[in-house]
Amino acid sequence: MLDMQHISKVYRTELVETHALRDLNLTVAEGEFVAVTGPSGSGKTTFLNIAGLLESADGGHYRLDGVDVGSLGDDARARIRNQKIGFIFQGFNLIPDLDVFDNVDVPLRYRGFAARERRARIERALELVGLAARQRHLPSQLSGGQQQRVAIARAIAGEPRFLLADEPTGNLDSLMARQIMDLLGEINRSGTTIVLVTHDPELARRAHRNIHVMDGEVTDLKPFAPRPAGAPVAVA
Amino acid sequence: MLGYYLKLAWLSLARTPAITALMIGAIALGIGATTTTLTVYHRMSANPIPARSSVLHAVTIDSWSPDRPADDENPADPPPQLTYRDALAVAAGAPAARTVIMRKTAMTVDPGAGRAPFLIEARLATRDFFPMFAVPFAYGGGWDAAADRGGEPVVVLSRETNERLFGGENSVGRSVRIDGREFRVSGVLADWQPTPKFYDLNNGAYDTAEDAFLPFALGAALELQPAGNVNCWKPETLAGLRDLLGSECVWIQLWADLPTAADVERYQAWLDGYVAEQKRLGRFARPSNNRLYDVEAWLRHNEVVGQDSRMLLAVAFAFLAVCILNVVGLLLSRFLGSAGASAVRRALGASRGELFRQHLVEVGLVGAIAGLGGLVLGWAGLKAVEQLYSSYDRLTQLDLTMVLAAIGLAVLAGVLAGLYPAWRICRVQPAAYLKTQ
Ligand SMILES: Nc1ncnc2c1ncn2[C@@H]1O[C@H](COP(=O)(O)OP(=O)(O)OP(=O)(O)O)[C@@H](O)[C@H]1O
Ligand SMILES: [Mg+2]
């Protein structure tokens, strides 16, 4: 499904060069549920952005679904984002002017679905995240956990093959976090490949496989391996 | 997608009503100013008789003083009107399909039945006036050649005069008392207001057409005083109309119907010959300078659309441009202010084109609303012009073309203002915005 070889990404400002990713290698098979952990600033979001075609890598090869996406133009990348990928961002990134229904509607609009189909998908997705009764609420009228669930509904309404989630439980209490993880597990069982970024090893353990990123490189961890004592934590 | 974009535009505009009102106000002001000046300009520069404008020719010959030109500012131009005797001679001799000689006078109508008499403006013209200028009749028609020759007491009434005298009925054959004599109505015009009043620009380019039309020969027979401009250069005794008829004063208009270029050439040659002959008789001391103008050339020559109206139009458009520039700034800050939402749309699969179109629809909507506002302002502006310049009242009617032009111009102005901001916003890098949230 996802195949990254020797991916590198450098951010240049006038003052500094930051090597956000250096020689990152990773393959994810169809149907897998992979958790990515790592300290803050290690390059997790950068990796996810490149995986989700929001940014392009400076070096290396990236094949998504057998397609070398490095050579695609802007429109083709937008189309792939729209049709194959679901995003749950680190912030909720809901559009504040739009109510819950219309927020979930956004990716479906660009997909060109008919009105009936869109309505059916939006209602199903909101049902799944338990917000069917809040369709006409604005994001500002929802709690943080509810907003995050709207973001999840928006990511899954198009039934993407590939779901990218960046700290989807970061702002939630542990009960809510577990509910969200249950939900992601369910979505994964229905066939969607998931890559989840989290700093919580407890949650990471619920995935099929854990990847640890340090300084822009993968330091592999075995599936379901217990976290080694004294492992490096959050050094920015 | 258009419906979706309109909905998004509406939500976005409603989110910041103050800025929205400011943008709409700015464009509406600019459109209002351009609509006002454009309407006046449009009607000023309209061709009043498009179907016949290339065959009708105003005839001028330079009969002016040996010492100075008729117009000091344009010394090469012959005077705009003719002497009475030259007008008669040219009309009788020069080869044209049709010719009209005419002048303006004032007369008093007595409606009878105890109603008060009233003054009218009348045009004394030869009978070809009506077919040459394609004058529309509601009832009846002009008069015959005998009436022209003998100066018979017949009259053609304007629609308004007929309304006033006969309540708008078909009055052909009935009698009207003018200047103490009975005149038989031979025809009643339908609405006819050529704008500009091309056939007599020398006496008010935007004046209304006359209230009544009578045979030219009546003017001499009844000694009707001129009501238009009379210009003289020669020291002559002018005790009454008799003297004027024989004088070197210019006060008669002459038009010839010359359908082909060959006709124009032949007519010109005849005029040159006529002047040469008159020179031998001791008249026409200036160099031979005889000119034919078709309607458009005549309007240009008389500067019907003045330099100042052109300037005013340019100023109005410059004002509109300033308004648009302001709106560019407002749009830019507004679009960049909601760049986060645009970044989210990009991340979720909107192409640059889709984002660009979404924002253009928003500015198009602003433009359309501003266009309606601009029309109201433009209409008010025209009313103000009408108050200030009463002779402009026929130039200040907002017609359908102008309404459509105003709305089109406003949408165009909006889109023009929005192009750069929309282009900027569709190039946001989604990742940059998503991280900062
Ligand atoms: N647009 C950018 N310009 C410059 N440097 C950047 C930019 N984006 C990220 N970086 C840098 O790249 C490195 C990786 O950042 P990234 O956001 O991928 O970290 P992260 O692992 O997601 O951290 P966190 O757990 O805090 O979200 C950091 O050092 C960061 O400062
Ligand atoms: Mg991150």
Q: What would you say about this model in short?
A:
The complex is a heterodimer of chains A (236) and B (437). Chain A has 236 residues and is α/β, with parallel strands linked by helices.
Q: What is the straight-line distance between the termini of chain B? A: 28 Å
SS summary, helix count of chain A: 7
Instruction: State the helical fraction of chain A.
Output: 25-40%
**What oligomeric state do these chains adopt?**
heterodimer
Q: Helices and strands of chain A: which structural class?
A: alpha/beta
Helices of chain B, by number, come to: 15
Low-pLDDT segments, ≥5 res of chain A:
222-236
Q: What value does the Rg of chain B take, in angstroms?
A: 30 Å
Q: SSE string of chain B, helix = H, strand = E?
A: HHEHEEHEHEHEEEHHEHEHHHHHH
Which sequence of strands runs across the widest sheet of chain B? 2-3-8-5-7-6
Strand content of chain B: 5-15%
Largest sheet of chain A: 6 strands, mixed
What's the CATH first level of the domain at 28-54 and 86-200 in chain A? Alpha Beta
Number of domains of chain B: 2
- The helix/strand class of chain B is alpha+beta
State Rg of chain A. Answer: 18 Å
Topology:
The complex is a heterodimer of chains A (236) and B (437).
Chain A: E1 2-12, E2 17-28, E3 33-37, H1 44-51, E4 59-64, E5 67-68, H2 74-84, E6 85-88, H3 100-111, H4 115-128, H5 144-156, E7 162-166, H6 174-189, E8 193-197, H7 201-204, E9 209-214, E10 217-220
Parallel strand pairs in A: 3-8, 3-9, 6-7, 7-8
Antiparallel strand pairs in A: 1-2, 1-4, 4-5, 9-10
Helix pairs in contact in A: 3-4, 3-5, 4-5
Chain B: H1 2-15, H2 17-44, E1 56-61, H3 84-93, E2 98-110, E3 118-125, H4 129-132, E4 137-140, H5 145-150, E5 154-157, H6 159-166, E6 175-178, E7 181-189, E8 212-215, H7 217-221, H8 241-246, E9 253-257, H9 261-280, E10 290-294, H10 295-301, H11 307-337, H12 339-347, H13 352-388, H14 400-425, H15 430-436
Parallel strand pairs in B: 3-8, 5-7
Antiparallel strand pairs in B: 1-9, 1-10, 2-3, 2-6, 2-9, 4-7, 5-8, 6-7
